[in-house]
Design the sequence.
């Protein structure tokens, strides 16, 4: 038996704001949306495949100090795609950690950007190569674990 991630579901506090955020940064297509005010959701995908579901079922901000999700990581083909995403993250005024592209660890060439969505959910966009031109922000541990 083998497993692979199907799609990711996130609770959000403002569906319109979150949907627009994920569409602008990741280029997701809106596969489906609810028209009911009491059951709001958006299904987002790429090339016909469902990737992310957003459910308007929460209030406040994501609590990083509680057990559960640490962060979501999305791989792109190259560092240029990471830099394009970084410019959109900056344009939207999202919280960006480490001030831009950084490697995954000391001496690593893989790396990317680490940021938060409007509800404080931590996100990563990375490329397998091309991020080694800056020092790693965390010594002795993976960058993605400490932001």
Sequence:
């Amino acid at each position: 038996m083998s497993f692979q991630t199907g799609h990711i579901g996130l609770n959000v506090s403002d569906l319109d704001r979150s949907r627009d955020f994920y569409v602008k940064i990741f280029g997701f297509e809106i596969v489906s949306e609810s028209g009911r005010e009491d059951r709001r959701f958006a299904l987002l995908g790429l090339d016909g495949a469902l990737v992310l579901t957003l459910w308007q079922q929460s209030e406040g901000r994501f609590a990083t100090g509680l057990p559960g999700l640490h962060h979501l990581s999305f791989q792109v083909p190259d560092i240029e795609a990471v830099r394009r995403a970084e410019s959109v993250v900056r344009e939207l005024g999202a919280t960006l950690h480490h001030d831009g592209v950084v490697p995954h660890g000391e001496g690593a060439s893989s790396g990317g950007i680490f940021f938060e969505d409007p509800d404080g959910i931590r996100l990563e966009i990375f490329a397998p190569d091309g991020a080694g031109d800056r020092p790693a922000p965390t010594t002795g541990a993976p960058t993605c674990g400490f932001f």
Notes: Residues 72-145 form a domain with the 2,3-Dihydroxybiphenyl 1,2-Dioxygenase; domain 1 fold (CATH 3.10.180.10). The chain has a mean pLDDT of 96. The beta strands are 8-12, 29-33, 41-46, 49-56, 72-75, 96-103, 111-116, 122-127. Residues 116 and 138 are 18 Å apart (CA to CA).
